[in-house]
């Protein structure tokens, strides 16, 4: 499925339906070793994630991006309600500090994920984050499909 992207002012919202049950999709967000497999744009040649997945816990994501070098995202989890939502603040370096809400909705055997980011003041950053996020969702979709085939 293609991601539905809406940009309004400093707000970016991306909706994507995954062909997997909600607990399975949520689990992909809750473990650093899983995030490393799908998070990051398609030009990311390497992605390292460390995460203390709990309210108040911190995370760091370091990506090596072909032709652009290293990019680091850090942040703190504000709220986690398994398997319904994850709220966190992310520091995108000199670009922005954003508030992020990821919501997981059951749709039969599928999961609709709605990711909302607020605080992206620059239009180019909104476009870059939008593209990177939709590419990440595409990688997650492929990973979930491969796991489903093996089951």
Give an account of the 3D structure.
The chain is an alpha+beta fold and 151 residues long. The chain has a single domain (4-150), classed as START domain (Alpha-D-Glucose-1,6-Bisphosphate, Chain A, domain 4, 2-Layer Sandwich), CATH 3.30.530.20. The protein is built from 3 helices and 8 strands. The chain has an 8-stranded antiparallel sheet. The chain is globular and about 40 Å long.
Q: Name the poorly predicted regions.
A: none
SSE order, one letter for each helix or strand: EEHHEEEEEEH
Name the CATH superfamily classification.
START domain
In round numbers, the mean pLDDT is 92
Rg computed from alpha carbons, rounded to a whole number of angstroms: 15 Å
Give a nutshell description of this structure.
With 151 residues, this protein is α+β, with helices and mostly antiparallel strands.
How are the SSEs ordered, and which strands pair?
Layout: E1 4-8, E2 11-18, H1 22-30, H2 32-38, E3 44-51, E4 58-65, E5 69-81, E6 85-91, E7 97-107, E8 110-118, H3 123-150
Antiparallel strand pairs: 1-2, 2-8, 3-4, 4-5, 5-6, 6-7, 7-8
Which features does this protein show?
eight-stranded antiparallel β-sheet; alpha+beta; 8 strands; single chain; 3 helices; 151 residues; Alpha-D-Glucose-1,6-Bisphosphate, Chain A, domain 4
